[in-house]
Amino acid sequence: MFPALMPTYARADLAFERGEGAWLIAEDHRRFLDFGAGIATSSLGHGHPGLTQAIAAQAQRVLHVSNLYRIPAAEHLAQRLIAETFAHSVFFCNSGAEANEGMVKMVRRTMAETGRPERTRLICFEGAFHGRTLAMLAATNNPKYLAGFGPKVDGFDHVPFGNMNAVRDAIGPHTAGILVEPIQGEGGIRAAPPGFLADLRRACDEWGLLLALDEVQCGMGRTGTLFAYQQSGITPDLLSAAKGIAGGFPMGAILATEAVAKHLGPGTHGTTFGGNPLACAAANAVLDVILAPGFLDQVRARGEQLRAGLEALVQAHPTVLRGVRGIGLMLGLECDVANTALQQACLEHGLLTVAAGQNVLRLVPPLIVTEADCREALDRLGQAAASLT
Q: What is the CATH number of domain 50-290?
């Protein structure tokens, strides 16, 4: 019998009924330490009282009203994001792909409104992942994802990640901006080389281009700062956020400077569900935690603990593991065996992980992960690696 759910995922035969902190409990009562966090999305883990109470309380009042009316919770959330970042204005949507699509529209709109309508193309990078819509498939440029979906959407030029000479060679009279992940997540936890984001900013300033950062995966505290760009000393023109922004409730956001946002008047862009009262209640609850004094210090401390432990595992299992990548709680293990084999071995030892590009195993636990959780994860990962030696 054909499955009721379209077979677009290779799902593990595992279903979870509840969660507690960094742990998930399956229907058969087995406990799994969740170092995948719904692909870097369950930022506050499972069953977080502040988040669950905020969602329940808002659900009892009003779920959705549409953007035909003011939404005070969205206004409050936008002001909080503006206060913590470069942005002057925020647009809320439903997902990372939608946020990235919106950024491309905003880049093109800004060029058109400033007398440069011929500038419609964006420079993107090999190894990127920007989403599954038709345009974002073209921006991603992965042949496997593009296969069978007809002509590729035009408007994106691709160069090697970290290669500034290639970036400059790609800039032409139709270039409008640069779209880049500060840390490529799906591409294998590849952080931009030191100084690369600053070089991109200088190139954009020199050529009158817009710099758009995709922080769908690396944003919202995952690297130890609210957004990863804040560790580079640069200011982008636009930034996309999603995944962890509402702790697992579907939400995305585009942060922009006034120079961009002023060109987005009524009717230029829209969304039915984006920024509704329930989503904003969840996102405000997440920000309450992430912005609390000392919280990001703990994210950095747990990231350092995990990195040190992972590096020790690399030394202990040299035929299985080759190296460690990443920043904060966005870490990757370079594998000498198939990363999917190590992922399966971890699953068999009660540890949830996520495979990524370049044969890397992703470790992206909830931001509330404890020191004891990290020790337990390293122990289980060591057992998994030993089983493959």
A: 3.40.640.10
